[in-house]
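User: Okay, second chain of the day. Same drill as before: sequence in, structure tokens out.
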Amino acid sequence: MKSGRFQQAIEEFKTLAEVYKLEHNQIEYGKANRAIGEAYLGLHNFKKALKHQKIYFNIAASEKNNEEIQRAYATIGHIYLTTYLETQADADHNLNAAYKYFMRSMEVCE
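Assistant: Same drill. Structure tokens below.
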């Protein structure tokens, strides 16, 4: 997907997120933030990707939704792993964080 398409997706999901926020539909608001984060990951904007995935995680945790908590952990792990593979900045931190979040994801499944 070209960067313009990712940016378009971000704008669309931000609009959707605002609708869900106004409707007080927390889980769907969180899922929209997950999608925003995934689009930022596609743009290699790891900081913004992580920001939106953490919004998603916090909502999933506050709603005690284990399926979404597991998915959030896995997605956050994927961001750290991709950051490690693409940038090598803070390599040890990013690889360890990826492992930690992937393991948390697996623990939720148990």
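The radius of gyration is 14 Å.

User: Thanks, on to the next one.
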